[in-house]
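Recap from last week: sequence in, structure out.
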Amino acid sequence: MLCLDGVWRTGLRFEQFLTGHMHPTKHRAFLPTAFLLPLAICVFSVPARCQDSSAEMNMTRGDRPEISVTVRDGSGGEISVPAMVKIYRSGVFTDQGATRKGRVFFILSGPGEYTVAVSAPGYDAGQKEVSIPVALKSEVEIVLKRLPNSNETSGVPGKPVLAPKAQEAFDKALQALSANKLKDANKYAGEAMKLAPGHPDVLYLQGVVDLKQRNYADAQSVLEKATQIDPSHAHAFAALGMTLSDEGQYAAAVAPLEQSLKLDANSGWETHWTLAKAYYHQQQYDGAVKESQTALASSNGKAPEVELLLAQSLTAVGRYDDAAQTLRAFIKNHGDRPEAATARRWLDRLTADGKVHQ
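Predicted structure tokens:
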């Protein structure tokens, strides 16, 4: 078995093979795919226009899917206070709306993996993962648990709702970002920032725009502010960690990425992948193996390149047979991808060094 220093050098050689294939900004799409993005590249959904249930019959879905969200309290009845419902696609915020009589209705941009997150004054937050493979209507019910000693009629505010003009600018920025019109996205995000400079979602959006434009210093600044204003904003922490990772600040990236997953275990496979890379560069190889395995499992085949990071991490901890098995699976299932040549070279190297047998 290689000594630690030898494993590290071997890992670096493998990483050199992966140049151009492992950089998070190139493979997150969503990230947001990545996480993101991607969060710097995740593909953003065009925000849907949410409606209350009374408008449901007047909307034309066409070939776009729908989500009808019903929020209930512990008794099973529809929640009596307005609840804020936010829709995320692959970890990226796409729309929000307040319930009326416990219900709110969204038309989405297309099939995909969605998260429905709900918050209401006097209740614990809740969320559900929803997979929408085709353009059909989905009914989602979320039950919120009442907080101890809370008074649901007290009017204690939840997270701030954007004023109409700010919401309009916010939506236009998302639409432009979805269409990869970065100049327009930056313009409208800037308008939203002027109208709602302290709103965490606006700051998060501006940070994503900056990240996609590789304005890392600006992205870091607004994302740090977003996490300070809203310490529960898991996606802002994830985006901050990705920004730091893209800058090569792997040590600094670990804390916000870990915090994102602490706040939301379903933050997205891109978060796990970026954290795995950060761990790897910090020589925390066991953590890199665990997080890359989680990223691979939760990506549902959308990011096969994660297997290469897993193979790299397995090699670093001396699990050569597992690394070889991972590489063979990648070659078998994704032999038409450019990275397959990298996988073959790495497998040949393991065989030549006597670490594994054919």
